[in-house]
Amino acid sequence: MLPAIYLASQSPRRKQLLEWAEIDFKVLVEPTDESFPEGLSPAEAVVHIAQQKALAVKNKLPDDVIIIAADTVVVLNDIIIGKPKDRDDAITILSALSGTSHYVITGVVMMRGEQQVTFYDTTTVEFHILTPQQIEFYVDKYGPYDKAGAYAIQEWIGVVGIKSINGDFYNVMGLPVSRVVPAIISLM
Ligand SMILES: Cc1cn([C@H]2C[C@H](O)[C@@H](COP(=O)(O)OP(=O)(O)OP(=O)(O)O)O2)c(=O)[nH]c1=O
Q: Reaction catalysed (predicted)?
């Protein structure tokens, strides 16, 4: 029998992406400390946090299931940008992203028993210059408080504000599914 697959994430986007990939899975989330040791690179930090998310559910589940956990951050000038604290923070973040390029990095940790697959994926995103009116419209209408970097590429701001992307679109949305699927197969 194939092992059950558990997504250790409350993110509706990750859930949707696995559904689009026609993966059969359940969701189980436990509270996780999303801090990370000082001095980690962004890639090391997202993998560390994804590992904490996976470990948080591991002892609640039978040993033979596959667990998938991920963490996504935006990185601008080597600084990690997580979710905005409030409206002002969201406006400040989007003003900093306007007219420039940043990268989005998602760390993925998958576990089955003693086996573990760990990787990260990086996508470069370039924004057009956004006007203050566009930024305020987006923040007030879409409230991107649960999104790393205060934006969602799959929403209005992604449609009208993004000049180019280099890498996996779905990685920006929170899960590099095309790399997750072969990793699931490798754990079967
Ligand atoms: C940059 C970007 C992020 N995001 C989302 C993906 C993630 O859900 C979120 C980053 O936060 P995360 O902390 O990675 O995930 P989460 O809090 O939503 O879920 P959990 O911790 O339970 O796994 O930002 C988009 O949906 N679109 C985007 O363009």
A: UTP + H2O = UMP + diphosphate + H(+); dTTP + H2O = dTMP + diphosphate + H(+)
Q: What is the pLDDT of residues 38-56, one digit of tens each?
A: 999 999 999 999 999 999 9
CATH of the domain at 101: 3.90.950.10
**Interval between CA 6 and ligand 1 midpoint (Å):** 17
Helix (H, G, I), strand (E, B) or coil at 16: helix
Query: Which residue type, as a one-letter code, is found at position 24?
Result: D
Whether ipTM tops 0.90, in short, is yes
CA of 168 to the centre of ligand 1 (A): 15
Q: Is 63 tagged catalytic?
A: no
Domain tally for the chain? 1
CA distance 123 to 42: 13
φ/ψ of residue 153, rounded to 5: -60, -25
Kindly give the pairing relationship between strand 115-127 and strand 79-81: unpaired
Q: Domain range spanning residue 32?
A: 5-187
> Per the residue annotation, which of 24, 33, 64, 71 is the catalytic one?
71
Please indicate, yes or no, whether the overall pTM of this predicted structure exceeds 0.90. Answer: yes
